[in-house]
Amino acid sequence: MSKLNWNLDAAHSEVNFKVKHMMITNVNGKFTNFDVKATSENENFENPEIEFTANTASIDTGSEQRDQHLKSADFFDAEKFPNLHFKSKSFKKAADGNYVLEGDMKIKDVVKPVSFKIEHSGLHKDPWGNMKAGFSIEGKINRKDFGLTWNAALESGGALVSEDVKLNAEIQLAKA
Questions:
Q1: CATH topology of domain 4-175
Q2: What's the predicted TM-score (pTM) here?
Q3: What's the pLDDT at 152?
């Protein structure tokens, strides 16, 4: 049996993150240039293989100064490491329509296992007859695990930037 190939529908997908700043507010950001490729045994996404890549220079937090700092060697070092990459290892059903996606995330030159909660929103044909699949994704990583260690101490105690980065994405795939 041949596998089904799925491609990103970029116009209907987004990859966002949230980081606590000064321990009091969240700063939101996104990657504007990313790709997802998937293969599955069938339209029910049994035993899928999933790869995600984001261009680190496409980071956008709404502040050009902050974005330039995030692209610098203090964080992503986008010139030396232009992409972050995720490759799945397992996609396990947790409950009706919910899954756990596990795999390896590579940021800079560091590879670590990560886990994401996935809500599979279902399959539908669009008005042009294309089969589409939708996914809501949530997870959290510790940025220091990936060598993103820059920080500054606050006078009142604590750090300027949280180590925890909350990730969330809305991904729509189109059957090739």
A1: Lipocalin (2.40.128)
A2: 0.90
A3: 67
